[in-house]
Amino acid sequence: xxxxxxxxxxxxxxxxxxxxxxxxxxxxxxxxxxxxxxxxxxxxxxxxxxxxxxxxxxxxxxxxxxxxxxxxxxxxxxxxxxxxxxxxxxxxxxxxxxxxxxxxxxxxxxxxxxxxxxxxxxxxxxxxxxxxxxxxxxxxxxxxxxxxxxxxxxxxxxxxxxxxxxxxxxxxxxxxxxxxxxxxxxxxxxxxxxxxxxxxxxxxxxxxxxxxxxxxxxxxxxxxxxxxxxxxxxxxxxxxxxxxxxxxxxxxxxxxxxxxxxxxxxxxxxxxxxxxxxxxxxxxxxxxxxxxxxxxxxxxxxxxxxxxxxxxxxxxxxxxxxxxxxxxxxxxxxxxxxxxxxxxxxxxxxxxxxxxxxxxxxxxxxxxxxxxxxxxxxxxxxxxxxxxxxxxxxxxxxxxxxxxxxxxxxxxxxxxxxxxxxxxxxxxxxxxxxxxxxxxxxxxxxxxxxxxxxxxxxxxxxxxxxxxxxxxxxxxxxxxxxxxxxxxxxxxxxxxxxxxxxxxxxxxxxxxxxxxxxxxxxxxxxxxxxxxxxxxxxxxxxxxxxxxxxxxxxxxxxxxxxxxxxxxxxxxxxxxxxxxxxxxxxxxxxxxxxxxxxxxxxxxxxxxxxxxxxxxxxxxxxxxxxxxxxxxxxxxxxxxxxxxxxxxxxxxxxxxxxxxxxxxxxxxxxxxxxxxxxxxxxxxxxxxxxxxxxxxxxxxxxxxxxxxxxxxxxxxxxxxxxxxxxxxxxxxxxxxxxxxxxxxxxxxxxxxxxxxxxxxxxxxxxxxxxxxxxxxxxxxxxxxxxxxxxxxxxxxxxxxxxxxxxxxxxxxxxxxxxxxxxxxxxxxxxxxxxxxxxxxxxxxxxxxxxxxxxxxxxxxxxxxxxxxxxxxxxxxxxxxxxxxxxxxxxxxxxxxxxxxxxxxxxxxxxxxxxxxxxx
Length: 919
Description:
Residues 454-878 form the TonB-dependent receptor-like beta-barrel domain. Keywords: Cell outer membrane, Membrane, Receptor, Signal, TonB box, Transmembrane, Transmembrane beta strand, Transport. It holds the Pfam family TonB_dep_Rec_b-barrel. This protein is 9% helix and 44% strand. The chain has a 22-stranded antiparallel barrel. Strands 3-6-7-4-5 form a five-stranded mixed β-sheet. Strands 13-12-20-19 form a four-stranded antiparallel β-sheet. The relative contact order is 0.13. Residues 1-29 and 86-97 have low confidence and may be disordered. The chain is built from twelve helices and 44 strands.
């Protein structure tokens, strides 16, 4: 749509409309604004699929965080955006600077594509990643309800709304003082959760003309360690799972020119030249050190050649992770409202949160080299002489090695995030017929990351290792002298690692109301504007190479953009039973330009028991500051990369067939353009009998210019199509690969949302209700570049999100008098497992190619018979269901033998909630 046409439409709605207005019949029911529209109307099942969750239902389910809540939403993606799977995600889209945060991902389209609102307005994005709203910054204690729009909404809200909208709505006109406390402890230990919350409100808008509400909540969650759960086991080779790392706490010797192993060694009667040697492997004692096992070479012959692994031990790093962070979080919100006249009120709102999370990673892995000066010296007191085992071992040469530095401790990071938003505004009625609202807000979010333990200055640690004083061949915690332990401690780095900050200043306003009386009813309109200033800063406080760190995201200072938007909406009663909603919005970004997005939807109700509804719209997602502006970084792939094109031309040449430490560039891309979508819904709502209703909404989304972080592996595996990203020297040897943020070809996804609701009564005063919210995913297809066939991902293992065929949340409630009880089931269907070694070899006999479904049951009972008191006792994971086994090997997805994106690792837990209202 051209700008001129848009301006004409805005003028027609906003200027001509009021002049044609007729007096509408008085409203007998209160009109409210529903998420997905700016027009107030009588609350009812509308043209758009909106799921509403009350705070009462959240409490009775034992949910204490927004992150937990999103796991129960069937339309939310099953991905790496929750706190458990987000702990250590290694994939290209991993957000290593958002520890302690959790994000929504409706339809599995990613956090950037889900818009999170508080009372219908935007809140600031996470301070370090800058990509989306941290759900844990939302204060659940003051929430009245949550509305989830399962449809695109760029025509109303602008960017970020391709997947849908989550709107947290605060309590209003609250009066009283309420204190609640919650304890939630696991039967198997670890992961204890505690919460205390205070909610207070004073004043009546109707009687006193004002109301002040304030809420503060403090949460403290203990960590849950992988070692505390038996199902977290990375060594199950009979099922196709075994660690793929030779960086062990008991060091592995490496071959290279000038080292004790030379360029490799042969065993008697074996012509194969081997490149790694671990004494415990020769002795059959790899498992004598906790977390170590004999390397299962048969599972990885095409990934890690047997020349490196036959005489190596493996380290089960997947069982050495946290399953959940220890977290302390304080959230607060306050809202003051003044009814300055019957038609106008002013309000001010303050939101603040502080989260401190402590993340623990596996101990750092050191790979010695002569360049680094950390080879073990010939005269060292712990020199490991393999002369009697390895033919040709040269005792006169230093030892190169790979060592998991357990004696330095786990790499421990502390992440502190602070969020604040101040909003002032006005809302009311103009000329007795038009609703208006106006708001000015300022939001800031900061994140600071500090290193607490397990990190060392690179030069100090290398010098210490090169001195020979560190015993590399002993069990962790048992092999170091007091002097060496003190030297290791002195080599540690503790201090600030990185910090980031986002800000958003917003001025928005709208007007809506009935403008003309048509034969079928009143024609309603809305028009509004949205002005925003967004900024982002991110800096590393210490260079990664200084402290044995992987390269970070790089500094991104003073990035900013201005956003200007206008929008309009019409609600047209075409027939008595048919209404059509028309909307259009134009956004202009100072960085990426302008975009216009329309939407049309309809609601047709031929009978009281039957409703048809649908929508069609366009959407867009603006690239983030990180995606556009982050620095280009040079990194390296592990040893053994194969250049498929070069190796075919030069068989056996290691320069092509086993490239050591291949370099690649990754980072931002200033040429990115917004993602664009075409999407829609078509559904029906049935209410054939009293006490029962069912909704069925089919949805489809097509996205072009999908923004993603391309990996160097994708470039290498598709060398025929992406040769421009493989940079070669004059001899044709790969110099480096270009990767990083790109606009991919796109994706196509379709599915069906199903909602079932029923309620009734039994004899004896019993009331019951049942509810199911489910999503059936028909298809999720993706193509990374033009010319690549779209690949179906539903029901298959993938490294970012798992696109499950079916998910649902169902509950049954029973109540009588002061008692009520609820049984809840959360169900996720199974999926095809990751094949060992990418399917290049036959899996072992015990391997099952399918990950089983996961069903978790929660039971709670509530009693309100004591004066002003509510008591809820619940059992989460009633049958102590363990996560289903999966054979994926940790890399790119956290968890060894289980998948945190799908299952809950806590096991059976008992929750206790006590709430007392003082007045």
